[in-house]
Amino acid sequence: AYTGKGLAELVRTALEVHKKQIIGQPIYLSKDVEEIVVKLTSKVDKIARTLNLPPRFLALKLLEKDTEFEKILETTAFSLLSFVNKTQKHLEQTHGRPSDVVISSERHALAMNIYETVVKILRSPKPDIRDKIDDVLMHKIWGYIFLALIFYLFFTLVFKIGSFIEEPLISLFDQSLTEIQKYIHRSSLVYVIIEGIIQGIAGGIAIVLPYLTPFLIGLAILEDSGYLPRVAFLLDTFMHRLGLHGKSVIPFLLGYGCSVPAVMSTRILESERDRFITAILTTLIPCSARTVIIMGLVFYYLGPNYAFGIYILNLLVVGLAGKVLTRMYPEVTPGLLLEVPNYHLPSYKTVWIKSWYRLKEFIVIAWPILIVGSIVLGILQFFQLDKIINTLCLPITIPLALPPEVGTTLIFGILRKELSLIMLLQALGTKDILTVMNKGQILTFTIFVVFYIPCAATIAALWREIGGKKTGLAIIFSVMIAFTMAILFRFLSYILF
């Protein structure tokens, strides 16, 4: 199916069967499962016919805990729900697994029986090098070691490429501002607006894009090569230790790209409790915008080990937060059935399409906001209104031992996370942050930005998926974590540096 081989022939055969009205042979499940299916089929027979559905199909869908069909039953035949729940529990008690997993296993067993009946293996297959690779990359110990190594190398490469491009571009924009100062005085409002426009454009071209572009291309390569599904497989155990469904891995992985689709992808989870907890935890995952901040500050000024350490810290915090939330909302979670594709060389076209789709959001949405934000901050500084915002933010900046000027950057960062980095350079009035902030302050600031309030687009996505009240709880929860971790590392920085 992946290569398209035989698909046209399959479609032609299906159409031919439909035209000739050939009735297929009924497929029966294991004896005890079949008995339960038959009982439920007879119960839903009348409602299935009113819905113009095959009764057996509806019975199987209800045993699979299909939310759409459960909703239909709630509105059309509410009295049947208790019988359906009893049937599901009976199947679970008999097999020791959730009813949806039992039905999936039955289908898999039937497929294997058909395969063994019709397929003749003329020769034993040769050992595939990809299987040997999987023996290492999906090993219960080595798999996690290689996972850490691969992502360490990945982020190091992203930084090397980003820093190589950033420095000459920054100096180029600095020179352009110097030239403009020959014609327009620095203290004039016109210069402030022009400077804001140039700094906004420079922030996108020289700071964000050099790190964001290789990050998104690398992520698409890992995804298209078949490695990311293996990461999901490795992290399935981690999810269950948190008390979440294994499918929660998917929103988590998407979160490293963008928090908005990550939050929206929680729809794949059947349990409302899992959707709520996973949505909150995905907002703590460092998205590509926060990755730019980690690269542009910690990696650039403190080194790769500190930057990678933030990702390790993030996983530990997400794990601890998940454990707290699942203890507050206890529920049994089923296992994950995941099809892992074969390794293959990534398609240039696919990698380009995925990378451009994710990059386009920054260029079309975030970059204009960045430029406008840069102009607004310049005007606020010109009229000294930024001091009011910074004063209001003192309850945050003083305990974290951060410069007061940082307050405005935290407010702008709620619009788009990239703004926190660009506005920081503008608010401090220098491209060399170490002249204003020490290494401990850089680390504290970055950790706070990584964990605190998600961006406006993510807040909107949360509101749609889990409602306003729970979104408010998610925001409070993230601020508490951000403040706690930043305070902790404020004092740890005295030891580290």
UniProtKB/TrEMBL annotation:
Membrane-spanning parts: 141-159, 189-222, 242-264, 276-302, 308-326, 362-383, 389-415, 442-463, 475-496
Residues making up the signal peptide according to the UniProt record: none
InterPro entries (UniProt xref): Fe2_transport_prot_B_C, FeoB_Cyto, FeoB_GTPase, Gate_dom
Keyword Transmembrane among UniProt keywords: yes
Alphabetical keyword list: Membrane, Transmembrane, Transmembrane helix
Domain of life the protein comes from: Bacteria
Domain FeoB cytosolic helical: 31-120
Location of the Nucleoside transporter/FeoB GTPase Gate domain: 207-297, 366-467
The keyword Membrane is annotated on this UniProt entry: yes
Pfam families, sorted: FeoB_C (PF07664), FeoB_Cyto (PF17910), Gate (PF07670)
GO cellular component: plasma membrane
GO MF annotations in UniProt: ferrous iron transmembrane transporter activity
Residues in Ferrous iron transport protein B C-terminal domain copies: 307-358
Name of this protein: Ferrous iron transporter B
Organism: Desulfofervidus auxilii
